[in-house]
Design a protein that fits this description.
Number of strands of chain A: 10
Distance between the termini of chain B: 23 Å
Structural class of chain B: mainly alpha
Largest interface: A-B, 35 and 24 residues
Order of helices and strands of chain A: EEEHEEHEHHHEHEHEEHHH
Oligomer: heterodimer
Radius of gyration of chain A: 18 Å
Number of domains of chain B: 1
Shape of chain A: globular
Order of helices and strands of chain B: HHHHHEHHHHEHHHHH
Radius of gyration of chain B: 19 Å
Number of helices of chain A: 10
Structural class of chain A: alpha/beta
Helix content of chain B: over 70%
Strand order of the largest sheet of chain A: 6-7-8-3-9-10
Strand content of chain A: 15-25%
Number of helices of chain B: 14
Chain lengths: 242, 320
């Protein structure tokens, strides 16, 4: 469904993403993990059209979308959320989600109904009249998810939707994400919270210093010495095994 | 019928009946209120709803005023026919400024400064090119007949501004309930998030500035027909830009009635201070006193009432 090949992106002299490749197949939940500064968000932004890649190719459902602007990529059926939540602060939750829903319809009533349905899916039905600015961290994360979902994507790119949440909230949002997948939306997620990834993702990619260093099931990734070293430092794998 | 609709209808009825009872002086004050509310609304649509704060909105006003006046004086057009052409010219200038500045990625204060620069360039051009008659300005021959867009009785100018103001309010109201308006608000609140949600931010911003330019140019033509004279400083002077921005901010930027409320407040202050300066000897040398009061008011509004006077009325914020 999504095919990224040898994508590179640098800022000034810093090579943020270095020939990274990944695949997402229809119906999957795929995780993208890696230590801080590994280039995960940059890779996301390059896939979703927020940065133009310096090299490499992004194809979505067989169509080359490299370098297309975000609104065209959104029209193709792929949408991203932000790690640092970006609610529209001075309008209500309903209106926030409607901005997403308007992507598929110009009619206000249709957009409103769609927004309410999406709010229901992510568990925000009771907060529709709250202002974007008044939401808690968990609420903002849900709103990010809801707005993106309202554009009617087939592939959802989630950037750390669980960061900053407490364990109860994580359990809740994991449930929401599973439900979204059941409804037929494929998901690629960046995550820091390891146990969340292992409980959600079927396959995991590991990015370190801009390079893709491993790919596999969550269990096999956790065993991979390269991955352990990336997270815990040089020599850590040997220590752990001993 | 909701209480809000009822209030609007009562207000409209009062505005229609008012000039039948009021003396000419008050009719002219009322006309200024609606006129400034109208051009303020043109600013508000771009600056308030879409968050594209312009400091040089007068560029559209002057474009409209000069376009219709040149067509009329130099080419003998009927001003009513020149009016839509003036609006088209304002739209074209809005489109051009938007494409140039948004293509270059200018936002926030940089956009504000570039619009100020455009207005100044237009003012200097109007001062120097032959077809505007430079600093001499342009005089429209007085011939007060309705067919000439000139009226002997000020009541007709009053009704015309009232009509413009109502149309502008309906446009703003439509924005609060349409997809276009929702997208503008999303762009104002957070451009990156708006892009992520599939909004073609550049195209929407160009669209809104084109609309705003057309509206403001309509105000320019009206002004020229009312006073029958324009020169570069009247048509492109910075004080009109400030006026448009001020009434919106004071009334409540991004609200439907903000510019009207702001215009009532500022015109009221203007008239009261003028009267004060004429009766209190100590204030005679403080000229113009209204600017002092404007300044104080703006400071207070920015510090205490970021949503403007509308913020006082609103129980539950909506579409702000």
């Amino acid at each position: 469904m999504l095919e990224v090949r040898d994508l590179s992106k640098s800022f000034g002299g810093l090579l943020a993403v270095d020939q990274a490749s990944l695949d997402v197949r229809q119906g999957e939940i795929v995780g993208l993990i890696g230590p801080n500064g590994a280039g995960k968000t940059t890779l996301f932004a390059a896939i979703a059209g927020f940065h133009t890649p310096d090299a490499g190719r992004v194809a979505f459902e067989g169509r080359d979308i490299t370098g297309l602007p975000p609104h065209k990529i959104c029209a193709a059926g792929m949408v991203r959320t932000f790690q640092i939540t970006q609610p529209f602060a001075k309008i209500s939750v309903r209106e926030n989600i409607m901005v997403g829903a308007y992507f598929r319809t110009a009619d206000r009533r249709t957009a409103e109904r769609a927004a309410e349905a999406v709010a229901d899916t992510v568990g925000m039905a009771g907060q529709l009249d709250q202002m974007g600015a008044d939401l808690t961290v968990a609420g903002r994360k849900r709103l990010e998810l809801a707005r993106a979902l309202a554009t009617g994507p087939r592939l959802l790119l989630l950037d750390e939707v669980m960061a900053g949440l407490n364990p109860t909230e994580i359990v809740e949002i994991v449930g929401v994400i599973k439900e979204i997948r059941e409804s037929g939306v494929t998901i690629l997620l960046i995550e820091h919270v390891m146990q969340a990834v292992t409980s959600l993702a079927e396959r995991v990619y590991v990015l370190n210093q801009g390079r893709m260093i491993a790919e596999g099931t969550p269990a096999s990734i956790a065993e991979d010495p390269q991955v352990i070293e990336a997270y815990l430092g040089h020599g850590a794998a040997k220590v752990l095994r001993a | 019928m909701s209480p809000r609709t009822l209030l609007c209808l009562v207000g409209l009825a009062a505005a229609v009946i008012f000039p039948l009872l009021a003396p000419n002086y008050l009719i002219n004050v009322g006309m200024m209120v609606f006129f400034v509310a109208f051009i303020g609304q043109s600013w508000n649509i771009a600056g308030g709803f879409a968050g594209q704060t312009s400091f040089g909105h007068v560029v559209f006003f002057g474009t409209g005023a000069y376009t219709s006046t040149i067509l009329q004086v130099t080419y003998g057009w009927n001003p009513w026919l020149a009016w839509p052409i003036a609006m088209a010219a304002g739209a074209a200038v809005g489109w051009m400024i938007a494409v140039l500045s948004f293509r270059a990625g200018l936002r926030g204060s940089y956009f504000a400064l570039i619009t100020l620069a455009f207005a100044e360039v237009f003012r200097i051009l109007a001062n120097s090119v032959p077809f505007t008659r430079g600093g001499l300005g342009m005089l429209i021959k007085a011939d007060p007949r309705p067919i000439n867009f000139q009226f002997r009785d000020p009541i007709w100018f009053y009704y015309l501004t009232l009509l413009l103001c109502v149309v502008a309010i309906l446009i703003a109201w439509q924005l609060t309930r349409s997809r276009f308006g929702a997208r503008l608000v999303a762009i104002r609140e957070n451009e990156e998030a708006a892009r992520a949600l599939g909004i073609d931010v550049f195209a929407e911003k160009v669209r809104v500035l084109t609309l705003s330019g057309a509206m403001c140019a309509a105000g320019g033509t009206f002004y020229a027909q009312k006073y029958l004279y324009i020169d570069p400083n009247i048509a492109f002077g910075v004080d009109k830009s400030v006026e448009m921005l001020l009434v919106s901010m004071v009334g409540g930027a991004g609200t439907i009635f903000g510019p009207l409320i702001g215009s009532v407040a500022l015109t009221g202050i203007n008239e009261v201070t003028r009267w004060l300066a004429s009766v209190v000897p100590a204030l005679k040398n403080v000229q113009p006193l209204s600017l002092v009061v404007y300044g104080i008011m703006l400071v207070l509004i920015v510090a205490r009432l970021p949503d403007g006077l509308m913020g006082l009325f609103r129980r539950k914020p909506r579409h702000a």
